[in-house]
Amino acid sequence: MPATAKNCQYKGSFHTSIIYMEKVLRIFVLWVLAGLLIPETVMAQQRYQVGVCDWMILKRQKLGAFNLARQLGCDGIELDMGGLGQRELFDNKLRDPQEAAHFKHTADSLGIQVGAVAMSGFYAQDLTKRDNYLALAEDCFNTMDRMGGVKTAFLPLGGCGNDWTTDKAKRSAVVKRLHDIGEAAKARGKRVGIDTPLDAKGNLRLLKDIGSEGIAIFYKWQTISENGWDIASDMKRLGARNICAIHASNTDRVWLRNDSTLNVPLIKKTLDEMGWKGWLFVERSRDVKMVRNVKMNYGANVHFLKEIFNSYPEAEVRLDSAGRDADYVKTILERSRKATDELGITWTPLGQNVLNIISNRYFQLNDIYAERDSVKKTDKRLAEAQCDSKLYRSHFGFLANLSMYLKPAEVEKVKDVMTFNVVKVTYDAQCDMIPTLKDEEKQQIMTWLIEARELAIDAESSKKKHEVFGKYKGRINNYLAKRGYDLTKEREEWYKRVKARGGEL
Question: Is this model's pTM higher than 0.90 or not?
Answer without folding.
Answer: no
